[in-house]
Write a structure and sequence with these properties.
This protein is α/β, with parallel strands linked by helices. It has 2 domains: 146 residues, Nucleotidyltransferase, domain 5 (2-Layer Sandwich); 184 residues, ATPase, nucleotide binding domain (Nucleotidyltransferase, domain 5, 2-Layer Sandwich), CATH 3.30.420. The chain has 15 helices and 14 strands. The strands form 2 sheets. Strands 5-4-3-2-1-6-8-7 form an 8-stranded mixed sheet, with helices on both faces. The longest helix is centred in the last third of the chain and has 25 residues. It is globular, with a radius of gyration of 21 Å.
């Protein structure tokens, strides 16, 4: 079975074509700058070279049409007919309370997804655009929606409710939803499989740390808490997002700066986080270079970043009633040994003992980085959200 996985952003489309029998990625790439000047499709060749095809890509449908054209092309293609693609799986950011698992996409499901747009106005419309485009270009091919929020729908009310008037929850569904659910689900299962331990009996913390980041507490194979909230702003200090902030500060800034809701949203989403504090960059690699050159604000941003990660590890260990497995994943979690080292520093009292040599050797590979004596197993697991989407798609289509 061949499954095409699409991740449609506001101005981009990431894609992977899987052969599910061999678990092989047959083709992959990304369309960038949709609707902007200089749009292009970039993809790697088997020999490692990268091809960039420029073109006028005005909306998502033409972007997907471009992708399908490359998959079919004589020069770069890997299929001879679209009939070779058995199904399409879509990443969908927000499923609200309506979706607690991946679903086969029907007209009724699309209507319910459209109702979730107000919960994720920046993310869900392009996700839906991809679904509309596939329907138009590929007819009745089976499509499956895999929601970032679905895995966290097992959280109890004390985890997902805010201390606001209950009527606002009833009217507007204001609550914690959490994100990165597909990644948290994949790495937690993969870690237990690699360690040979039963998933349902482990107390697990997954740290998905990238430009955006979140932690999740998993018990009995279910998410019981997570650091992102109703939107992806809450929780950790991120590349450009503020993370946890006193709600009173928002109205204070709006009054002092005489700005409205759109401007404050842009401030906390696009101009805060590592970028906002450091004044240097949202990229951890550039931040580390600035720290090495003695930049104090870059150091401060990194210190806040580490403090938040460590604080959530401690909090979720308390929520879980102890900890068996700590997992690092995401771009920073997989590749930054200093982040892993400092996040685990001084946590020996919790049973976390890092093997510093092993930790320093690992860059993007799956490996245990705790000592044999450590009561908590610390492991790096590269995330593979696209494969998880493909696997869910295959399971649902086969049913």
């Amino acid at each position: 079975m061949k499954i095409l996985v699409l991740n449609c952003g506001s101005s981009s489309i990431k894609y992977k074509l899987f052969n599910m029998e061999s678990k092989e990625v047959v083709a992959q790439g990304v369309v960038e700058k949709i609707g902007l000047k200089g749009s292009f499709l970039k993809f790697p060749l088997p020999n490692g070279d990268k091809v960039v095809l420029e073109g006028e890509i005005l909306e998502h449908q033409s972007g997907i049409e471009y992708i399908l054209g490359v998959l079919l092309s004589e020069k770069y293609g890997c299929i001879k007919s679209l009939d070779e693609i058995d199904a399409v799986g879509h990443r969908v950011v927000h499923g609200g309370e309506e979706f607690n698992s991946s679903v086969y996409i029907t007209d009724e499901v699309i209507k319910k997804m459209e109702e979730c747009i107000e919960l994720a106005p920046l993310h869900n419309p392009p996700n839906l655009a991809g679904i509309y485009a596939v329907k138009e270009l590929m007819g009745d091919i089976p499509q499956v929606g895999v929601f970032d929020t679905a895995f966290h729908q097992t959280m109890p009310p004390e985890s997902y409710m805010y201390g606001l008037p209950y009527s606002l929850y009833e009217k507007y569904s204001i609550r914690r939803y959490g994100f990165h659910g597909t990644s948290h689900r994949y790495v937690s299962r993969q870690a237990c499989e690699a360690l040979g331990v039963p998933y349902e009996s482990q107390r697990i913390i997954t740290a998905h740390i990238g430009n955006g980041g979140s932690l999740a507490a998993i018990k009995g194979g279910k998410s019981i808490d997570t650091s992102m909230g109703m939107t992806p702003v809450e929780g950790l200090l991120m590349g450009t997002r503020a993370g946890d902030v006193d709600a009173g500060i928002i109205s204070f800034i709006m009054e002092k700066e005489n700005i409205g809701t759109q401007a404050i949203s842009t401030l906390i989403n696009k101009h805060s986080g590592l970028l906002g504090v450091s004044g240097v960059s949202s990229d951890m690699r550039e931040l580390q270079a600035a720290i090495a050159s003695g930049n104090k604000r870059a150091q401060l941003a990194f210190d806040i970043f580490i403090h938040r990660v460590k604080k959530y590890i401690g909090a979720y260990t308390a929520v879980l009633g102890g900890l068996d497995v700590l997992i690092f994943t995401g771009g920073i979690g997989e590749n930054s040994s200093i982040t892993r080292e400092l996040a685990c520093k001084d946590l020996e009292y919790m049973g976390i003992e890092l093997d510093l040599d092993k930790n320093n050797e690992i860059h993007g590979d799956e490996a245990v980085i705790s000592t044999p004596e450590s009561k908590v197993t610390v492991i790096v697991v590269p995330t593979d959200e696209e494969y998880m989407i493909a696997a869910d798609t295959m399971t649902i289509v086969n049913k």
